[in-house]
Amino acid sequence: MKKTEYITLKDQNLIDLLQNVGDDYTALEMIDENNNVDAVVISLGDFDYLLSKLDDEEKAQFLSDTVELD
What we know:
Elements: H1 12-19, E1 27-32, E2 37-42, H2 44-52, H3 56-66
Antiparallel strand pairs: 1-2
């Protein structure tokens, strides 16, 4: 299982953009070629929609690989 990392955001522009994913923006792609960063942020609603399109076996495999259960 991949680990989870937590950070505190200090850039108000980035905070504003992230808070508006799902409202004003469908997705937010963050690219920084100098630092080898390429990430896409989607809303939780869109994530849930994409999960609903997987069959039960695919969904179970994806969740077991990516979600930490208590």
